[in-house]
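Q: A small favour: would you put together sequence and structure tokens for a protein?
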Amino acid sequence: MKIVTELIARKDATVIAIMNQEAKEHDFGFLQEVVAMKKLSIIFFGIAVFLGVGLPFYFAPYGFYNGYPELTSFIPISIVLGIGSAVIGVCLAFKLQK
């Protein structure tokens, strides 16, 4: 009877160890997903700042001072793309909160 009890205890310990390992792997996969989403969110916010702020301030003076007013036509497009990138970044940030 003692041998049977010992075998059952070993089997239970093995099952618990396997379950713990699976839980760790699941947590690690979830953490990798969160880190990837944070990186994407930061990238989209960077794109938003570049498109929404950086390019308009570059195109406007360059276009006016150097005689290329057609470059200023990129400003509204750049701002709209910047706002779109910011919206995507905000959506990713809110998805991380869940």
About this structure: The radius of gyration is 27 Å.
